[in-house]
Amino acid sequence: MYDFSPFIDSINSFFTSNFSPFWASVLLMLLLGVAILAFYAVLGLYLVYAERKICARMQNRIGPNRVGPLGLFQTIADLIKLLLKELIYIRNADGFLFNIAPFIVIVASIMAIGSIPFAKGLQAIDLNIGVLYILAISSMGVIGVLIAGWASNSKYSVIGAMRSGAQVISYELSVGLSLLCMIVFAGSMQLSDIITSQQDGWWLFKGHIPAFIAFVIYLIAGTAETNRGPFDLAEAESELTAGFHTEYSGIKFAFFFLAEYMNMFIIAAVATTIFLGGWLPFHIYNFTAFNTVMDYIPPVFWFFGKTAFIIYVMMWFKWTFPRLRIDQLLALEWKYLLPINLLNLVLISFLTLMKWHF
Amino acid sequence: MEETLVDIDFKEKEEYIINMGPQHPSTHGVLRFETCLQGEKVKYIIPHCGYIHRGIEKMSESLTYPQLLHLTDRMDYLSAHINNEAVALCVENAMEVEVSDRVKYIRTILAELSRIASHQLWWSAFGMDLGALTTFFYGLRDREKILDIFEETTGSRLIQSFITPGGLMADIHPNFQRRVKEFITYFRKKLPEYDQLLTGNVIFRERTMGIGYMSKEDAIDFAVTGPSGRGSGFQCDVRKIAPYSAYPFVQFNEITYTEGDTYHRYLVRMKEMWESLNILEQLVDNIPQGEIMLNLKAIKAPKGEYYQRVETARGELGVYIVSDGAPSPARIKYRSPNFSNLFIINKISANHKIADLVAISGSLDLVIPDIDR
Asked: Quick check: is A34 in a domain?
């Protein structure tokens, strides 16, 4: 019912018919780039706003409520402030690396956004190895974090960066393995294929208990991969002041800040796509009236609704749990999550082989 | 100490030293921990204090007793009433006068209220040290109620200077008793919430249990008093050992644990809040009638040396006055609990992770202006 492909195709044909093939592709790329950047900035800012409002609710506060109605423009005002702020030059810092680090972090998350299917046909690039691509790109961000910590020439930053490196590399395994579990079910790495394989039920429900285990592990590992609380050891405000971005100011700090929120969005979006049926509506088996009503809700709303739910859960973690210690963090991954995940993968392969899932 | 200092100077050239503080979120003030790290592990810590030294003791030598009382508020600002009480009691002992029972009761109620308020703020900040940011707002929400009671009666919220030698600055507000009773019922409902949010949390327990072990001998050697010492089984509650004000009239338990780790120092304070509520309940309805201020012609201690100790929220506060009979003391010395509690930190946090150092220093509940005075 809601298919974006004709709309996308019409834009495509408009450019190809009016311009030479070279200019058409250049203009299309430009359009796409601007669209993604605008989407990225607006979504990032409003995730920050959402977090501030949600944590305020959890802490008996009101949250931002002065700039604009309900404080809706607060984060925009903050961004303008950060843009206008002086960029402090750090003596003895490695200038080139210091400046490039925030860009690596933010570019990695922008690239990952490109392959997320927001609705049918609304996807910048539908790679046949989409899951692998997202995993590869989103783990590139840690390079930026490591560089930032190293180049700032600050002891706190180095500790934060090393923690972040150890953490992301460990938890990348769990994220990868739990996604692999679902790839075994879906039989494809292409994100649009994975979604269509969930037409008759989301993998979270179809895949029995193993899929649920994979989902929980993915949420934990995903939260850890974005360096968010209770796994925010890389920042660890009370220990390392601000960890790897202690020395950054102005817009470079804003880049790290935005990237953190967008990484959270990417983790939630991937969870939505792979476990919760992406933009597919919620259906109850043999309940036609309900299913028809659900079908009328546009897929974009389904996608963002599910993503928002997962983001809410991740914020819930952050604002209620204390922070783990580095050895506990690594023990959790290597002693618990990884073995469980490997067992789970074997179990899921077996289920798929015997065709026991729904 | 001289030996180790030379040793450390030599080591500094090759070791990874980070300065936690003077401005650092986890030291709660201008305290500096010179921390030597090996990776994430703490090798040793040298605490440096003196960043907020205001010379309170020296200043006091040129002030009269009622005047110098106002400086005591600024030492441990979270138990301002108790600090005032210490000086007031010391001067009263020197002058050999005794205040009325009404004053004693009100002093004790105010002291217990400040103990609860102080523990609430400590709980809030301790959660934040461990990364649980929500605790801060829960604690402050309830502390606000106590500060409102203080404001109504004493006119100010943090540093009240209400208890003076010879009695109190003023009588209590007519609402005082009702509001204290309201607070007792309110806070009895809210305290289990604290446990749900933090005490029962798996991560919290993992982070604090078995961390920063302090033996009873260590506690006695370093003179660690207050809840930090009682977590190690050191029975050092001045309210029990040398009861003052209205403490002889009330029943309460001294909370001690023998485990001596961060978690049990935490538990001592949580239980103390319950105990303080019990004390308040016993006192608030029974405030006797009596005069608020003794009619003293001049407040001056006779020639001699006087010592008085009280239990603040952090431990034993001692006031030592040397008087030559003048209206101001010849020498005044405060034995502040935080100064003694601070220096155990090297011993109990060596070989722990840097994150544990934050937890341990949080569990000692340091108020920095009290260290330096």
From this structure: no
